[in-house]
Amino acid sequence: MIIRNARILGGDPVDLRIENGLIAEIGPGLGGVTAFDADGLLALPGLVDLHTHLREPGREDAETVETGTQAAARGGYTAVHAMANTSPVADTAGVVEQVWRLGQEYGHCDVQPIGAVTSGLDGRQLAELGAMADSAARVRVFSDDGKCVSDAVLMRRALEYVKAFDGVVAQHAQEPRLTEGAQLNEGEVSGRLGLAGWPAVAEEAIIARDCLLAAHVGSRLHVCHVSTAGSVEIIRWAKSKGWDVTAEVTPHHLLLTDSCAEHSPVGPYNPIYKVNPPLRTREDVRALREALADGTIDCVATDHAPHPVEDKETEWAAAAMGMIGLETALSAVQEAMVETGLLDWAAVADRMSARPARIGRLAGHGQPVEVGSAANLTLYDPSARALVDPGAMASKSRNTPYEGMTLPGRVVATFLRGRPTVLEGKLV
Amino acid sequence: MKHLISAGDLGRDDALLILDTAEELARVSERSIKKLPTLRGRTVVNLFFEDSTRTRISFEAAAKRLSADVINFSAKGSSVSKGESLKDTALTLEAMGADAVVIRHGASGAPHRLANWVRGSVVNAGDGTHEHPTQALLDAFSMRRRLGRLEGLKVAVVGDILHSRVARSNVLLLSALGAEVTLVAPPTLLPVAVENWPCQVSYDLDSVLPKSDVVMMLRVQLERQNAAFFPSAREYSRRYGLDRDRVAKLHDDAIVMHPGPMNRGMEISAEVADSPRSTIVEQVANGVTVRMAVLYLLLGGAIGGDVQ
Amino acid sequence: MSDAQNPPVSGGDLARAVLEGPDIHRALTRIAHEILERTKGAESVVLVGIPTRGATLARRLAERVARFEGRKVPVGAVDITMYRDDLRLRPARPLGHTELPPGGIDDRIVVLVDDVLFSGRTVRAALDALNDLGRPRAVQLATLVDRGHRELPIRADYVGKNLPTAKSEKVKVYLEETDGRDAVVLVREGAR
Question: Within an 8 Å CB–CB cutoff, is residue B196 touching chain A?
C-alpha cells in the first residue's frame, strides 16, 4: 500500500510504500495502490508517551485500556507507557502482564506497562522489579508515580537494582512533608486564593537528591513531569556532569500557569486546572520551554490522567488531581514550541517519539521515518485550528484543561505498523 | 451586584453604598419593631459546612429583620456529612427555590463553585483560608462609626495572616476605601508574595502600634504550634499578643478590634478586650446591620426569577 | 413621588410650568394655615416628610407654622423604600434618610408631607412605615400637588393644587433646596 504526498518532518511531499508493517520505499510518484492520500500533510513518526494513566484495572469508570488507547491514537500516538497506580497496583508480574494483554487485545496503540517501584506504592518495600522485567510485559520503566519514592535509601536501592535489566526509575519528585495538603503552586496566586501552597522546592529538593544518588550508584534516573525553573537548573547541572539523567515535561506545563485557577474561560477555582505537580508561573513555563528546546528536558510526556466528572465538579480542595492530555498533546506542543519558533518538526519528532522510546527501551517505536523503520506514522495538519471540545474526545473522561481554548493542528491519520488506527480524524 | 463572594469584587462605590445603606438600617435595630417587610417572599438559605454559630445567627437575624424566609442547612447530621457533593446540595437548594445562599465552607473557593450551580445570589460567609467579605464590611463599618472616616486610616491587622480569610477580605476592602493596612505577623504566618498585596507588612508589632488608628487582632489557633508556625503559645503571646503595655503605645483615639471568637490571654488580654477602646461587642451588632444591607442590595430589587 | 432627576425642561410645547415659585409659596402658606386650623393650633402635630422633596416641604411648612403661631412643630422624615410594593420591578434602590421627629410619633397627629399625590401607593407605604415606628393618634396627609389617578382609597387632607392630568403625563417638582429653583412642571409623554 502507498501513502501519498506526505511531507516527512515538513519536507517535500513524497510517497511511502508500506509492506509487512515496515516502510519499504520512500520517493516521489511510487507505483501501486493508493491507501491514503496525505495531500501535503506533515508526517511524523508515531508518537510515544512515557506517562499515561489508563486506569484499568480498577477505575474503568474513568478510562479503560480501550478508550485510553483510542484517545492515544486520536492524538497521534502509536505507543503509551501505562502508569502503575492502578487498582490493584501494577507491582507484580501478574498485574503488568494483565495490562499488557489488555493492550494486545483492545489496544489502538501499543501498551507498555510501567511497574511500581514499591509494593502497593507504599514507599516501604521494593516491588518484585525483576519479575516484572522478566514477564511477558518486559517492564523497563518503574515508577510510583502519583507518589514520590521519598525514602532516600529505598530510592538508592531501586536505582541500583534495576541496572541488572537496564531499567530506569521514573521519579515523581514531591517531598511529602513540604506538600501536605498542598493545592496550588505556592506563589502570588495561591496566597491570594487562600489555597495551600505547593512550593517549587518540594520538587527541586527531590530531583537534586535523586541526581546525586543516581550519580553515586551509576544508575539511570528519569524525572517525571518537571514543572519548575529550579528543576530545570538542577537537571542541566546533572547532565553537565555527564550523569545519566533524563526528564520529561507535560504539554500543560508548557502552556498553562497557576493563574488559570484565578482567571480562565471556566471560572475561578475550577479544579479542571488542579494537577500534580501543580501549574506553575510564567517564568517556569519559559524555563521549561527553553529546556525542552535545548535538550535539558528530553521529551514530552502527557501524564494523561482521566477522572470522572464527579471528581472534578467539586470545590477545589476536594477535587482529584490530573488532566487528560493524549488528544491535545501535539497541538499543545505546536502552540508552545513550534509557533514560538523553539522547535522545528524534526525536533518535535525527537522529543515526542524517538527520545521517549529510547528512555523506555521500547523496541519498534521511535524510529525515524525512513526505509526499514516500522511504519508507525502520524499524519498531521498544522494549519488547522479549532476550539477544544471535550465532548468530542475519545477518552472516557472529559477533564481537559483546554476547554474554551483554541489550539492549532489536527491529527488526520495514525498508522501502527502500517495499519491505520485513525483516518480523517476518526478511529478506524 | 449578583453575588458577594470576594471583597475584591467591590469597587469603592459599591462598598460605600453597602456601608451607607447599613448606616440607614442601623436605626431599624434601635427601634422597638426591628422588622422591615422588604424581603417578604424571598428565601435565604444558610448553608453552613463549618460550625460558626455567631456568623450563622448574624445572617439569620439580618434576613429575618428583612422578613425573608430563612432555611438553616447545617452540614452536620445532614446528607452532606454522608458524602453528598456540594453540587448535589446546590441542586437541592435550587429545587427549594433559594433566592440567596449564604455559604460557609472549609474549602477556599467553594462559593465560586456554588455560584455555577445555583441561580440565586451567593453570599460568602467565609471560605477556607480565602475570604470573609461581610466580616470586612462590618469591620469597616465599625471603624467608620467609631472614627468617622476610613480614608487615610492606619489599620494594623495582627496575627495568622496566612490562614485568615478575615485578613484577606480586609486588605482588599480597606485598601479600596483608602485606608492604609499593615499586616503584622511572624514570617511563618504570612503568605508568600504578600509583598504584592496592597498593604504594608511588618514582623514587629511594637513599632507599628504607635502609628495605628485601628489594631485588629486575629484569632490564632493553638494547633498551628504543632505545625511549627511558632514555638509556643507563650512566645507568640509575648511577641504578638495585645496586652495593657502594648495598648499604652496607642494614641488616645485608637481602637482595638477582634472578629471573634477570641483566645483571651493568647492574642489579646482580657483587660484589653473589655476596655473602652474595644469595638468587639459593637462588631457583633454591626454585623447584623451590614448583613441586612448586603441582603437588601442583593435581593431587595428585581432578581432573576422576577417578572420584569 | 415626582420624577425630577433631570434639570427643568424649559419652553417647548411639551413641558408646561403649572406652578411657579410664588404659587408654591402661597400654596404652602395656605396649607400651613389649614393645618393650624384643623388641628386647633397644631399642638400635638408632627410633620413627617417623605424623602426627598416631601421632607423639604415638611421643613418649609414647619417654618411657616412657627412664623404664624410661634410654635415649634417637630419635623421628621420617613423613607418608604423598604415598604414599596414595586421593589421587584427595578434593581435595589439606595435608601433615603429616615429621621424620627424629636419626641417620636406616639400619640401625635402626624401630618405626612409629600410633593405629588398620584396612585397613592407611596402614601400606603408611608403608612406602613409609620406603623413600625410608633402609634400616632391620627395621620393626615399634605401634598403640594394632587394629580388624580388614585389606585388606592387614599385622599389628601391638605392640597396645594389640584392638577388635572392625563395618566401618561409626568409631574415634576423642583425645589430651591434640592434643584435650585421652585417650580411644578407638567411634562407630556414623549417630552424629555
Answer: yes
